[in-house]
Amino acid sequence: MILLLTFVVYSPSLANGFTYDDSQYVSTNRGGDRNLMVEELRPFSEYFEREMGYNGVKPVSRGFRPITVYSYAVLHALSKSGDKRQPTGYEERAWLQHTVNVLLHVLATWLVFLIVSSVTGPGLPPLLGALAFGLQALHSDVVASMVGRGELLPFVFGATGLLLYVRAAKLRGGARVLRLVGVAGMLLLAFCSKESAISWCVFVPLFAWTCAWGRDPDRGLFRVLLLQRGTIWAIALPVVIWLALYVRFLGMLDTTFEVAYEFNPLFYVPFMERLPVAVMILGYGLSKVFFSLMLACDYGLTVFPTDVGWTDWRFLLALVFILAMLGTGLVFARRHPLLFLAAAALLGFSFVTSNIPVPIETIFGERLYFAPSLGLCFLVAWLGKHPPASAVSRKVLIGVFVAWCLWGAKWCVQRSIHWHSNDSLMLADVEHQPESLSINKQVAVYWKDKDPAKWMEYQQRCLALDKHYIMVLNDLGVHHLLRGDLGKAKEYLDTALEALDLRPRYIRTQGDVVHLNVGRLQLITGNRAQAKESLETSRRLNVHNPHTRSHLLMMAHEDRDEVVAAELLAEFQRYQPNNSHFVLHRGLAAWRRGDWNATCLDLNEAVTKHGLGRSPATLLERWALAALEDSLGRLRLFDDQRRVLGQMLRVFPRSEHAKIQARLRGLQK
After folding, report:
1. Domain total of the chain
2. Which residue, of 362, 386, 415, is where some domain finishes?
3. DSSP secondary structure letters along 144-167
4. pTM of the model
5. Average pLDDT over every residue of 24-44
């Protein structure tokens, strides 16, 4: 019943799509960048050489998760279906990815039951522990998000390895060796599913030691530890293999990748300055394991204060909470092993991702507390095994637990629905986490075409949270630029440039976009030389930005600078061969050569493969659609064809006007 209930509360997620991080790390339909390790199955060894989200062009993470990424690729291959209307030639389906996530969580819940029962024996306590795990509200992010498989797989593999290790201790001979080989295999799979799974190499022998000591509390600690001397190789061997694989992976990793400051400002802070903030956030995360009042997909720069010092009450409160948990576990280790295991799981699994030992790519994430929540299951099982003596206290305790389970089930269902799409998730989470810059920014994007007033409201919310938010200042500058209010556009873009000077670490990640739009403004105001300088600055900061290259190509065409144009087209071919801008410019180059057939082929690709023309956003895109329709004879009316060629006169360099006018004269005949 518990496993069925766990499946039911997450069943709404089966209808969800590729939401939030899924679109970057799991989906293969993500615009110009390809998801090379997922779009087709590659040699298995290659997954140990590429980071999660690898696109063949630029690094998007440092994640060493070959087993997790391989699972995405296998399920993608099984679920995709041919569809020539899609840019990739197939329709990408999300239901199988979500189904596997839900089933993995059900399996993890069953493994929790087995783990707890190996300490308490059969009966009510392991059932209560499994129920607490299955309906834990904090797990909703992990289960509803495909990227959450990076928590599910390590837990399933690690828990399976733990159970095999405990059983191996009771066997002898070949049966024992066989179990230990299984332990080594499971732990290696866990480590290769996500780096933080390395915590299992400590928790597994600690769990076995606790169980052995609990069965024979009179035996000395040293003698209990000696019992594992013949089995510890099953844990040490996968650690050594994983370290070798991981070091090799780091040596092949692109060194240009940088952790975004807004995702984890602690990444760039010295250890002694980072420590009190990290301890405060660790205390906050552990408190959410016990009770999750509100859940959100994003925590970033403005959610947590980063100026917490050693005497700050928030740091001291978190420190007392953590030390109390640790002290309770140690004091009762012999008499109440479940309490010791609860503290060990809560603190041990959370420590490695707490930004205390090493900074990671995010300041906080609810999904990081999936494995630590095993500690709560041990605590619930202990309460079930040692209920209060008073009948009233027992009723209160039962009432609290039932209410907690109902609250968790409600959140599991609700969050599964919230994760249906990016829009539904952001609209829900902006209420739960109004201080998140990222969520407010994405809600602004949602409202941009639907309600400009709301778009402006959320942009202003972002500026209220951070007056130097570079991308919001940039977007407001572009907004006024498109409306023709050049004074306002210049004011916002100049402020964005000042913000870049104040935050130099953003120059590499956001400076190219700001300089691009400054260049666009300068082109409109006639400052061609300054515009070229701004665009070249944008190009130097990020050679992967197709918009910058597209503007420089248009300027090269206007200047009849074939050398620069060829260089820029070669960059497109190298970095973004599937980008729509490249296809359009290649078509323009063919038009200039007088190769009308090649022009039509490129324009046909732009419209059919990239979907341009359905709602053309730029003159270049309008030209692509119009020229294609003209070449196919779909523009039958003389006025329509004349309008199209007139549009080409406005967007094409002057050197092409003679050809276009000749075509106009041909129409008149």
Report:
1. 2
2. 415
3. HSGGGHHHHHHHHHHHHHHHHHHH
4. 0.81
5. 75
